Amino acid sequence: MVAVPGARSAAADPAIGHGADEDLRALFGQSSAVFASLVGPAHVVETANPAFFATIGEERARTGVALVDLMPELAGQDIVAKLDHVYRTGEPYTGRDVRVVLGTGPHAREAFFDLTYEPRRDAGGEVAGIRVIGVETTQVKHAQRLMAEHRALLEQIARQAPLTEVLDGMARVIENLAPGELLVSVLLADPDGLHLRHGAAPSLPDFYNEAIDGIATGDGVGSCGTAAHRREPVIVTDIATDPFWDDFRDLARRADLASCWSTPILARDGGLLGTFAMYHRTPRVPQDTDLALIRVFAGTAALAIERHHGEQAQRAAEARAEAARAELAEAVRAERKLRAEAEERAVAAAELTARVRAAATAQAPAAHPEQCQLGGRAGCTAPPELKVADPWGDSAWGCTAHAEEALIHVRSVFIANEELGGLAGYLNR
Which pLDDT value is given to residue 417? Predict the structure, then answer.
């Protein structure tokens, strides 16, 4: 997850849409037939067509050289053993999707060919050499696998599979499609775009994923932090020497990582969604097909992440709407309860008023003081109309207002019954 100085950074094509045709052409380009005529048991290249030299590298376009001297990487590969067998037995050989590793070091690549080896005979009928005719099937083979896996990922996204499941599956697909050992990492941008969080990295060690979880986006912060900051791919071919990895070199060494190519994952509006990185165990320079593959899957990751963000926003909106509905329902229930309580209080007040009036009428003939006795310290000069009492036998006369107040607020106060009298009236009620 580290960056590369500007000269090594490629301009980013949109993941889906503009530039996609070029990526598909790079991945699914036309194969060319290769031909070479070899002589002698050392398989010296006598002649070959331009497609053959283009395949092995124009810098190696020479004849009169033994095949293994021209292409040292073939030593130990099955292709040489098959040539030896045809030369020794004179029996032709045809193989489909024969695997050949071309080149060495950072520029090595895996290729597949449909090959035919035909023995060449001299005038005496002895095998003098071999004609090699082949068609590279690498792109077709990779394209078939890529399309099948890519379709499966799109189906996952369409059925709204969890984002972690989609990203983890995508990482494993790319690792399986790669010709050599490859480790994929997807980091997700925080909403503010200032930090990157772990998204998926099924083959990277846990200690590495934990260490880079939450790294800042910024120039020089590894490949991923720089790619996120610049909004363009950052290619580091050798972590051991790249300055962007100064703060992470020891971590990369512990994880046995030697190169890292990181591409920003961008939304349709240009917003940062995350980064997509490819790691290798050895220093590596990306081929055109590697860059095309990165763009295709960066676009797939963008689609999955944007769909996930949309689903999150929808769920949040639904949760807010449900909370608002619940709050409204609670408010309605509370309002109904208050209205019912108010109606109950109104009925109780009316009943109390009626009782007070009836009691006042009944008590009017009884002897009573000239002023209300229930006015408290402030006193009350209103004429008393009602006598009230408590369970302990105390009683007092008061005006209608203060008598009602006592009946409502003073515990166990009731309208006195003059026929039974104070405490006796309470005890015999």
Answer: 67
Contact indicator for 119, 250 with CB cutoff of 8 Å:
no
Question: What's residue 279's pLDDT?
Answer: 94
337-380 pLDDT, tens per residue? 989 888 888 888 888 888 888 888 888 888 888 899 888 888 89
Is pLDDT above 70 for 30? Answer: no
Pick the closest to residue 236 from 13, 8, 10 (CA basis). 8
> What is the reported pLDDT for 184?
92
CA–CA separation, 96 and 115 (whole Å): 6
Q: Retrieve residue 178's tokens.
A: 């790669």
Q: Which residues pair with 117 in a beta bridge?
A: 93, 132
Which CATH number is correct for 6-16+141-314, 3.30.450.40, 3.30.390.10, 3.90.1170.50, 3.40.50.620?
A: 3.30.450.40
Q: What residues have CB less than 8 Å from 116, skipping those under 6 apart?
A: 92, 93, 94, 132, 133, 134
Instruction: Give CATH 3.30.450.40 domain extents, the chain.
Output: 6-16+141-314
Residue 367: CB atoms within 10 A of its CB come to 7
String of DSSP letters for 249-316: HHHHHHTT--EEEEEEEE-TTS-EEEEEEEEESS-----HHHHHHHHHHHHHHHHHHHHHHHHHHHHH
Q: What is the pLDDT of residue 353?
A: 82
| CA of residue 95 relative to chain centroid, distance | 43
* Architecture of the domain made up of 32-136: 2-Layer Sandwich (3.30)
Report whether 224 contacts 277 (CB < 8 A). Answer: yes
What secondary structure letter does DSSP report for 11? P
SS3 365: coil
Residues of the chain with CATH 3.30.450.20: 32-136
- Is 231:12 a contact under the CB 8 Å cutoff? yes
